[in-house]
Amino acid sequence: MIERTDADILEAIAKFLEATYRKGTLLTGIILLQPISTNKVFGSEARRTRLFKKICGPKSFGNVVIATTMWSELQDANLGQQRVEERKGSADFWGDMVKFGAKVVKHEDNTKSAHKIIHILLRKQRTVLKMQEELSQNDGLLHATSAAQQLYQDLGATSEKESQRLQELTQELKFAREEREQLLKELKELREKVNVLEQQKEKLENTRVSYSVFLHPDSRRY
Is the separation of the CB atoms in 107 and 69 below 8 Å? Predict the structure, then answer.
C-alpha cells in the first residue's frame, strides 16, 4: 500500500471542496475527530489542528463539531475531561474555534452517538469554507490557499530540522568506526525523508485543482 503524504491528502481535500463549491453544493458542518486517550499533546496534533483551521476559516468555525473519541481506553474519565479543557483553553488548539462557535462533544464510539453529532450539524446553515473561497479567487491554485501555505511552512520547518540532523550525521560518519553501518542506514533514511518533504513542498507550489470557471455565488442552487 502506498502511503499518501500530507500534501497528497490536502490536494484531495482541495479537489473535493473545489468541485462541490463549483457545483453550488455547500457543507452544513465539519467534524474533527480527536482521540482523547493520548497522554500528551503531540506536535502532529498541533500541526493537524492548524491545518484544519486554515481549511475552514473563522467564519465557518460555528459549523464545526470537535468530537473526542477513544474514551473507553481511559481508566480515569476525569483525566480525559482535563485534556479536553486544556485544548479548549488553548488558542493553538481548539480555543479560537470554540470562541467562534465550534462545539466540543464526546463521541461514545457507537452509532447512536454518531447520529447525535450529525444532528447537531443538520440544524446549521450552510457555509463556505475559507479554502473554497481562496481556490475560487485564485483559479484553483493550491499554493494560494492559507492551508497550503501553512502546510508548506510546517514542511519547511521539519525539512530544515532533518537537514541539520543529516549534516550532523555526516560529520559523525567521518570519525565513526564501529557504528558506521548504523550511521549509514540512518543517513539513507534521513535523505529519503528530506527528499519526500521537499517533494511535498514542490507539489504544493505547482498544483492546480481545477481549470474550470467558478460559478458566481448568486447563480448557485442551494
Answer: yes
Tens digit of each residue's pLDDT (9 = 90 or more) over 140-173: 999 999 999 999 999 999 999 999 999 988 888 8
Q: Last residue of some domain: 72, 102, 127? A: 127
Q: Residue 90 falls within a domain, yes or no? A: yes
Closest to 102 in 3D by CA, of 88, 116, 114:
88
**Do 80 and 72 touch, CB atoms closer than 8 A?**
no
Structure confidence at residue 123 as a pLDDT band (50, 70, 90): confident
Residues 211 and 143 in one domain: yes
Q: At what angle do helices 43-56 and 146-175 cross, to 10 degrees?
A: 150
CA distance 158 to 155: 5
pTM for the model stands at 0.87
Distance of CA 14 to the CA centre of its chain: 12
In tens, the pLDDT along 36-78 reads 987 655 678 889 999 999 999 999 999 999 999 999 998 888 9
Alpha carbon distance 185, 179 (integer Å)? 10
- With beta carbons less than 8 A apart as the criterion, state whether 84 and 129 touch: no
Do 118 and 157 share a domain, yes or no? Answer: no
Whether residue 155 contacts residue 197, with contact meaning beta carbons closer than 8 Å, is answered with: yes
Choosing from 127, 160, 178, the residue where a domain stops is 127
